[in-house]
């Protein structure tokens, strides 16, 4: 069952629009294969099992997915209840529709929203929030787009969890092939991570949470933070 609170995005920064434009329905049909079987393990050196493990150990009964992709990871997550409630937040109607269709056996709500702005969901209304493979697609440095962590935390109840993953360009090992692909994706405006460092991500997590875990797998940072009770 899906509720639809989406509306056409208006007056968003062009770089943000350019970042989500490649994710149309035809491209989304191949996204999982190219990302979780292709670029993640081969170029970023992070196994799909690492992403799935992060979801298994982090999702709550009422979950908000920010930057939804295809809904692949929440569809494979081991929720603590059999009937989780999932809110999907994205600027791209195509990804919202695709993910909602994939998660159609759960109670889902689609919301058009920008992670760089306060999310259009009630404060402290969810048990968990995910930003998986989102930050490296958002324009700006982590010092700027780290505000997405603040907005995710606002949507989570005290004691809840904010977690996610992102591809970094410095402070982590980047293979020659990975650097080449990263440069191409940045040039196309699909990625915006040429300034993203492990140090800046750590700093942003410290600014927004007192309790967090941060690990790296290849060029990918995976994090889990708990909102103070």
From TrEMBL:
Q: Name one GO biological process term.
A: methylation
Report whether Methyltransferase shows up as a keyword of the record: yes
Q: Which residues form the Methyltransferase type domain?
A: 64-161
What are the UniProt keywords, alphabetically?
Methyltransferase, Transferase
InterPro entries on file: Methyltransf_12, MeTrfase_VrtF, SAM-dependent_MTases_sf
Q: Which organism is it from?
A: Streptomyces chumphonensis
Q: What is this protein's name?
A: Methyltransferase
Transferase as a keyword of this entry, yes or no, is yes
The record's section on CDD domains has:
AdoMet_MTases (cd02440)
Question: One GO MF term, please?
Answer: methyltransferase activity
The protein's matches in SUPFAM superfamilies, at most eight in alphabetical order, are given as:
S-adenosyl-L-methionine-dependent methyltransferases (SSF53335)
């Amino acid at each position: 069952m899906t509720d639809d609170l989406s509306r056409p995005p208006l007056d968003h920064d062009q770089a943000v629009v350019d970042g989500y434009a490649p994710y149309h329905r035809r491209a989304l049909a191949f996204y999982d294969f190219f990302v979780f079987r292709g670029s993640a393990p081969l170029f970023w050196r992070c196994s799909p099992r690492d992403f799935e493990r992060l979801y298994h150990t982090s999702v709550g009964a009422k979950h908000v997915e920010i930057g939804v992709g295809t809904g692949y990871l929440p569809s494979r997550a081991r929720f603590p209840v059999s009937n989780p409630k999932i809110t999907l937040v994205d600027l791209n109607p195509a990804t919202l529709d695709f993910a909602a269709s994939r998660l159609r056996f759960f109670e889902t709500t689609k919301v058009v929203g920008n992670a760089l702005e306060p999310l259009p969901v009630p404060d402290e209304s969810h048990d968990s929030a995910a930003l998986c493979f989102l930050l490296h697609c958002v324009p700006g440095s982590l010092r700027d787009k780290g505000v997405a962590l603040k907005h995710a935390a606002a949507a989570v109840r005290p004691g809840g969890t904010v977690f996610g993953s992102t591809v970094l360009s410095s402070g982590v090992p980047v293979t020659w092939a990975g650097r080449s692909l990263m440069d191409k994706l940045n040039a196309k405006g699909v990625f915006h991570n040429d300034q993203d460092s492990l140090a800046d991500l750590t700093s942003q997590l410290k600014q927004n949470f007192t309790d967090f875990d941060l690990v790296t797998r290849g060029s990918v940072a995976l994090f889990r933070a708990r909102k103070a009770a």
